[in-house]
Amino acid sequence: MPNLIPNKNLSLLVHLLGWIMLVVVLLLLSPLSWRMGEIQLPYQFWMKQVFLVGILITIFYSNSSILVPKILLKGKNYLYLLMVLLGAVLFYGLIVYFEQFIGYGKAMHMLFNPNKPYDPSKRWLPGDIFQLLLFVISIGLSTSVALVTKYQKDETLRREMDRQRINTELSYLKAQINPHFFFNTLNNIYALTNLEVSKAQEALLKLSRMMRYVLYENQKNETLLSKELNFIQDYIELMKMRLSSKVSLNIQIDEPKDDLIIAPMLLLPFLENCFKHGISSQKESEIVVKVEIMGKTLFFETRNQIFPVNPDSPEAHENGIGLTNTQRRLSLIYPGKHRLKFGKDESKQEYWVNLTIDLS
């Protein structure tokens, strides 16, 4: 849901409401409660309240905008403490000067003690303590606001840097997977050209459809699961063209009922691994591929026999780039939402992969 109020306007509104609450609660509500109806406060009192609000606002924003970022956050803690203490002295001095300038002390004395002589050298100690307390509150709140704002900016920057890093890494990983896939597929088509031209032509048509998927869908961060499964089926059909009768395929792929989303070309490396290691020209072999969809959860399974790769083929010198990168992509895209298990069954000389992804 989009924000109804922009962040900048929301921050301004919060500050405005905060100062209104301060004025109402501390500077208006308390004075107005003094024997309401019996005492008419002099205009000097209200002039001082307005002056006090103005100076507290100045202190608040001077501290949050200047002292905290330029001194405290630079590690100059003692200098910051000294500036706060000097600020308290200046604040108190300004209050005393302003009271003398407008005749605040005499007006309040005549209101509450009209029968006693006025002594300008005597001050009401609780009032001074209250005003200094307001100074401390203003400094404390402004420092907290500045530190929280700095933390939020740093956190936003960190998340943005993480997002850019992940996007860059994913782009790099996908760039590695794609040449790996085309390298294997073109090798298959090259083998077909020596056997049957018509099958090679059919294979090229399927490859062109798969390339279209790679060019348009793989550039996105996500695609429809139905498109990904169609791509997988095209790949399997392409692989069938070079398989002998000794290879048995057990393919079970569910049709997705909902518009589920998945990262593109995420399952391909597992299939490549099956057809690279699970085929023999001399022995019977079986490749099992199962895709089950239960609600918003995808269950993917492959099983294949393990046969040694021809040492003269380029594949014999590969270090599992596709599978390694797919593991990394899964950890980046689906952290805490996937489970990948794989291993070898030595008794059957079989390699298996089980992958579960929560696509919700």
TrEMBL record:
Q: Where is the Signal transduction histidine kinase internal region domain?
A: 169-246
Mark the transmembrane ranges.
12-34, 46-66, 78-98, 129-149
What is an example of a GO molecular function annotated in this UniProt entry?
kinase activity
Entry keyword annotation includes Lipid biosynthesis: no
Keyword tags: Kinase, Membrane, Transferase, Transmembrane, Transmembrane helix
Top-level taxon in the UniProt lineage: Bacteria
Q: Any idea what this protein is called? A: Histidine kinase
The source organism is: Algoriphagus confluentis
